[in-house]
Amino acid sequence: MGNNSNSQTKKEYKKSKRLLMGAVCFLMSFFVLYCLVSPKNAGMLGQALSSVTLSIFGAASYFIPFIFLWFSIIYFIPSVKLRTRLDLVLSLAIIVLASSFFALTKNITGIKSFSPGGWTGNSLEPFLQDFLGFYLST
To answer: If 42 and its partner were Cys, which of 21, 35, 61, 137 is the partner (CB 3.0–4.6 Å)?
Structure first.
């Protein structure tokens, strides 16, 4: 009888932990999106977050809030098996690939206020131009 109540508390703990992580990811999604869209109204922390993410990932920074939203959905649905490490690696790969794409197509996008690929895209741009060739990369 003691094992049954002990296993019940473990299930409740896991469920409450998932709900808490889902709520945190949802709030992070909202906060990051607010900081990226309106950095001047987000205060000093919002301006710093916006500046850092835009300088590192460029226009691909706008994918970050949606990735946090995806994580919150995964945490809220109890039937989905959690693969946090795999999802995190795939999310980072999506952001880096988008950053590289924006760096390669900077002449097409017409973004002038900041580097469209950020630091990661600009660092990978010479490699991708050699790998894809000049005509495929522009």
So the answer is: 35
